[in-house]
């Protein structure tokens, strides 16, 4: 393959040659994940959608690429001392897995809120896990303190040239598989992944559009590039990209090579996670679904484009995934809670249940309320959770209840 001509931005922290060197270094130790076209998502969005399944890595995330590239650069003496990192989860697992494989002791500092599945899997790879702080930034500061005290080598999750180059191998594989992609949509936390991918993409084709995506609650890179001061806080489904302060090195690359950064809301992230599971039968975490969330939230912008999306990780807590799926069913009308006002007399609940039966709606749960209500003493309300085929089916049920003179209100999700 012909090496592209160097860009004018040759003073950036990494080059195309650095990414190629990383690809050679990690070859055989990571999975070259598939990049496949999604017919259904293409039909749904009006774009030509290709998915890079980095959630199929052994540790279920792309992070092990950069971690391994960094580990391979260590001297024998540094390997003996061991490494330390701060991570919300995926960098932790990638580093722990390859450190154990190479015989390097690893310590990982994780925020207290890190998903249980990520903590357990990191420990399962042989790392010593320290839970500290409420955010990645607090965990990072603590990891630097430990590194200084114990003489450990700190392995950054994103703001390091070797790590960035390792992550860029995702872009190499995508463009090797689908050379004529004209748009790449990439999640941004600290910026390591998009820095590596943008370096490759712009070297291969300066006209290609590279779009970053951040959660609305953590717009750190977006604010930096726009000269804004934005609060980065809150519980986001995309905790893997919930970074308050982007990297200094990564921000240089993003400023030079990334065309735009879009922000996505929590509902968009939940919808994307659900769609990928129901349509593609693949599990992704919130950060992994950010690219699709941006595509779905901006259909006109991307209609007709040939788009590569990076499903960067699949480490989502199963309880959280269940909640996301149930909330999506509720929003689509397939699950519903109806609040119905009844008269306090025999047979009322039976008559309501009869209407549900006539409409072929499955009742999941019934809750009567007589005390905590502002209704008269002889009045009562009942909440009924039910399962329907779709929104139209639910609307027919509500109409039938109202036609029978019942006062009905749907309890909607925010």
Explain briefly what this protein structure is.
By secondary structure, the chain is of the alpha/beta class.
Task: Provide key terms for this protein.
414 residues, alpha/beta, Rossmann fold, lyase, threonine deaminase activity, single chain, Alpha-Beta Plaits, L-serine ammonia-lyase activity, 19% strand, 14 strands
Backbone shape: elongated
Q: What share of residues is helical?
A: 40-55%
Strand percent estimate? 15-25%
Overall pLDDT, averaged?
Answer: 92
Q: Any idea how many domains?
A: 3
What's the number of helices?
17
Could you name the ranges where pLDDT drops below 50 across 5 or more consecutive residues? 1-8
- The CATH C-level class name of the largest domain: Alpha Beta
Note the main sheet: 6 strands, mixed
Quaternary organization: single chain
Strands in their spatial order, largest beta sheet: 1-2-10-7-8-9
Structural class: alpha/beta
Domain ACT: 337-414
Enzyme class: lyase
EC number: 4.3.1.19
Protein name: Threonine ammonia-lyase
């Amino acid at each position: 393959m012909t090496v592209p001509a160097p860009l004018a931005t040759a003073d950036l922290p990494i080059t195309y040659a650095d990414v190629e060197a990383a690809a050679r270094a990690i070859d055989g130790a990571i999975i070259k994940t598939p990049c496949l076209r999604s017919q259904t998502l293409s039909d749904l969005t009006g774009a030509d959608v290709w998915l890079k399944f980095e959630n199929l890595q052994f540790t279920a995330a792309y992070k092990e690429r950069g971690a391994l590239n960094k580990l391979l650069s260590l001297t024998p003496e540094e390997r003996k001392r061991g490494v330390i990192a701060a991570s919300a989860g995926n960098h932790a697992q990638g580093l722990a897995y390859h450190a154990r494989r190479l015989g390097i002791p690893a310590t990982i500092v994780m925020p207290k809120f890190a998903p249980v599945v990520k903590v357990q899997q990191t420990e399962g790879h042989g790392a010593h896990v320290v839970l500290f702080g409420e955010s990645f930034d607090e965990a990072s500061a603590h990891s630097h303190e430990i590194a200084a005290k114990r003489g450990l080598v700190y392995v950054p999750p994103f703001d390091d040239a070797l790590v960035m180059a390792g992550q860029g191998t995702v872009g190499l594989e995508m463009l090797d598989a689908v050379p004529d992609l004209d748009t790449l949509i990439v999640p941004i936390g600290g910026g390591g992944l998009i820095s590596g991918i943008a370096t490759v993409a712009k070297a291969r084709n300066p006209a290609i559009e590279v779009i970053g995506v951040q959660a609305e609650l953590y717009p750190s890179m977006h604010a930096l590039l726009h000269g804004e001061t934005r609060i980065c806080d809150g519980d986001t489904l995309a905790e893997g990209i919930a970074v308050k302060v982007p990297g200094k090195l990564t921000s240089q690359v993003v400023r030079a090579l990334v065309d735009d950064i879009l922000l996505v809301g929590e509902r968009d992230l939940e919808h994307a996670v659900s769609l990928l599971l129901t349509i593609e039968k693949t599990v992704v975490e919130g950060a992994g679904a950010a690219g699709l969330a941006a595509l779905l939230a901006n259909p006109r912008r991307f209609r007709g484009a040939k788009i590569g999306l990076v499903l960067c990780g699949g480490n989502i807590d199963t309880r959280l995934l269940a909640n996301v799926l149930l909330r999506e069913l509720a929003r689509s009308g397939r699950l519903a809670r109806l609040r119905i006002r009844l008269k306090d007399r025999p047979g009322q609940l039976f008559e309501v249940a009869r209407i549900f039966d006539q409409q072929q709606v499955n009742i999941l749960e019934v809750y009567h309320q007589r005390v905590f209500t502002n209704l008269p003493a002889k009045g009562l309300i009942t909440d009924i959770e039910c399962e329907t085929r779709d929104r139209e089916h639910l609307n027919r049920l509500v109409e039938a209840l109202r036609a029978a003179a019942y006062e009905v209100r749907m309890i909607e999700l925010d």
